[in-house]
Amino acid sequence: MQLEELREFRNQARAEASREKKEYKDRQGKSGFGREDSRKDNRGPRFSWYTPLNADREKILQEALSAELMPPPRRALSPDNADRSKKCRYHQNTGHTTEECQTLKDKIEEFI
């Protein structure tokens, strides 16, 4: 009898853990670290809050690249209607500044 109760308890605990894991993945946008290609349709901020930084994102990018914490990003093409006065050192293109770069913000937040 006790074995049956224990087995039932374990089955309920596994089901609850599985449900919590699924809910967590749904809250995180269903993408894990390093799987940017699955997020390309989303194009919104990945995090609802970003940690305040005491250095510019451009400087953090330079440090991360020199310490080989992240691979150098592939160059992205600039859209036709991009603002040519704004340059992003992460994407190596125009249209937004390095400080405004949503992808870089997300990468830095992952490191934090």
Briefly characterize the structure.
Helices cover 41% and strands 4% of the residues. By secondary structure, the chain is mainly alpha-helical. The chain folds into two domains: 31 residues; 68 residues, no CATH class.
How is this structure best described in words?
This protein is mainly α and 112 residues long. It has helices spanning 2-27, 57-66, 102-111, and strands at 87-88, 93-94. Helices cover 41% and strands 4% of the residues. A two-stranded antiparallel ribbon has the order 1-2. The radius of gyration is 20 Å and the shape is elongated.
What does the main sheet amount to? 2 strands, antiparallel
How many DSSP-defined strands?
A: 2
Helical element count?
3
Helix amount, in percent? 40-55%
Give the strand order, joined by hyphens, for the main sheet.
Answer: 1-2
Whole-number count of domains: 2
Strand content: under 5%
Class from helix and strand fractions:
mainly alpha
Distance between the termini: 49 Å
Task: State the assembly state of the protein chains.
Answer: single chain
Let me know the average pLDDT: 81
Which secondary structure elements does this structure contain, and how are they paired or packed?
Layout: H1 2-27, H2 57-66, E1 87-88, E2 93-94, H3 102-111
Antiparallel strand pairs: 1-2
